[in-house]
DNA sequence: AGATAACTTCCATAATGTGGAATATCTGAA
DNA sequence: TTCAGATATTCCACATTATGGAAGTTATCT
C-alpha cells in the first residue's frame, strides 16, 4: 500500500520482530488485540505469526490467552551478548585491571543505550548496570559519547522521541545544553558523566570508532576514587581499548 | 515440494529462527556458505533473510562478511528472562516465606546454568547469586537437578565442553562420579549441593517438569540452618512449587 | 596476476502468506 | 445458571510476496 517497503526485506520476518519488540516494550506479555492496535496488523495475521513463534518456543501462550516472550529467546540473547562481549571483554577486563573500576560497553538501540557487557570491579561499592539494561542517552557517559558521533539534527530527533528526564540536579534538561556539551565532547575526544544519572557516580566514556552500530565504552565509579588523576590515567587507556575493540569488531576475531 | 509443511507455520519466520539458532550453536558467527550447508537452504534465500535481520540489528555483518548475532537480540533475551522470572516469582516468594531461605530459578544455557530470578531470604548471611549470573552445572544444585533430566551421553558432552572445575574439596571432579550422583538424584527426586560450590553452603534443588527449556528451582543457605529437618520440610514444598511453575510456564490448554 | 570460491543482485514464477468473513471461546453481568 | 459483548481462532479464495536458478560481483587463495 502507501507504506514504504524496505528493499529486499522479508515482510513476515520484519513483522514478527516488530511484534516481539512490542511485547518487550509492554513488559513481556500482551493480548492479541493489544498487539493489533499497537502494530496496525489484522488479527489473523498476528495470530498466525505468533503461532509460528509459539511452536518454536520463542513465545508462550499463557492460560489467560496472553502471549509472553518465550524461553528460547534467552539463549539467543545470551549468544548475542557473548558475541559482543567476546570482542570487547578482553579489553574491558584489561581496563578493570589497570584502573580498578567497572567497565561497560553499550550500543545505541532505538533512541536509548543498551548495555551489552560489563566487567565489574572488585570494589564492593559499584554500579549494578546489568547487561541488557537500557538507559537514556543524554544522562549517561556512553550515551553522550555515542550522540557526539551523530549529526546535531539526528540528536534532536532522538531526544525528542526518547525524552530528557533529569534524574539528578546535574542532569542536562534541554536540547541546546546537550548539543553544546556534545561539541565539547567532540573537541575533547571523550565524554564525562559527573553525577548526571546518580549523584556521587562519575563516568568517563569514549566512542568505539567505525563500529557497525554506534558503540561506546566507559569506566565508572564513585567520585571519591574517580577524580582528576584517575582521568589522566583513564583517558589514554580508554582510547587504546576503543581502538582495539574497533579493530576486533571490524576485522575477524576468533574470540 | 514434497517436504512436509508445518500446519499454520509461516515458512520464512521458521527459517529465520532456524538460522539464528544455527549461528548461536556455532558460537555466534557464521559464513553464509556454512549456513547454506547446515540448513539446506539455497544461498540467495539465506542472504535475503539475513539482510532483513541485519537491517533491524538482530544480526551484524562483519568486515569479513561473516554474519554474527546482533545487539538487538540482547534486549529480547533480557525481556524473556524477566518474563520467566515473573512466572516463578510468586512461587519463589512463597518458598522463602515458608522456609526462610533464598530461592532461585535457573535454566540451562549453552552448557551452563543461567540464574533467571532470585528471591532473597531476610537473613543477612545469604547467597549472592544474582539473576543473570551463569555457573557450572556439576557443582550447583540447580545444575545437577537439570542434568539428571538429560541422557548420560548428553551430560558427558556438556561437561566435556564446559569443564569440571572444583571450587571446593567437596566438588565433583570427574564425569563418572557425576553420572553416579545423577542416578541417585533421579531415584530420590531432588538434588543436593552440600558445599560443592562454597564450603558451608547447602542447597536443595528440583527440576521443573516439562519446561520448554530445562529448568530447576532451589533453596539454599548456610549448613547451620539448612539441615536434615530443613530438608524434610523443604522437599515437599519444592515439589509443589516446581509443579505449580510447570503449570504456569506451559500453556494450559485444558483450561 | 589468474583462478577459485564465496557473496550478492536480478527476475520470472508460483508458492506462500494474507486478511475479510465466519466460527469458537472466554469474560462479566444479571 | 444464561445471555451479551469482547476477544481469539479457523477457514479459504486470492494475489501479493517470497522464492531460488542463473548471472554478476567481490574476496581469497595459489
UniProtKB/TrEMBL annotation, chains A, B:
InterPro entries: GAF-like_dom_sf (IPR029016), HTH_MetabolicPath_Reg (IPR050707), Tscrpt_reg_IclR_C (IPR014757), Tscrpt_reg_IclR_N (IPR005471), WH-like_DNA-bd_sf (IPR036388), WH_DNA-bd_sf (IPR036390). Keywords: DNA-binding, Glycerol metabolism, Transcription, Transcription regulation. GO terms for biological process: glycerol metabolic process; negative regulation of DNA-templated transcription. The keyword Transcription applies. Residues 72-251 form the IclR-ED domain. It comes from the Bacteria. GO terms for molecular function: DNA binding; DNA-binding transcription factor activity. Residues 10-71 form the HTH iclR-type domain. May be an activator protein for the gylABX operon. This is Glycerol operon regulatory protein. It comes from Cryobacterium tagatosivorans. The lineage of its organism: Bacteria, Bacillati, Actinomycetota, Actinomycetes, Micrococcales.
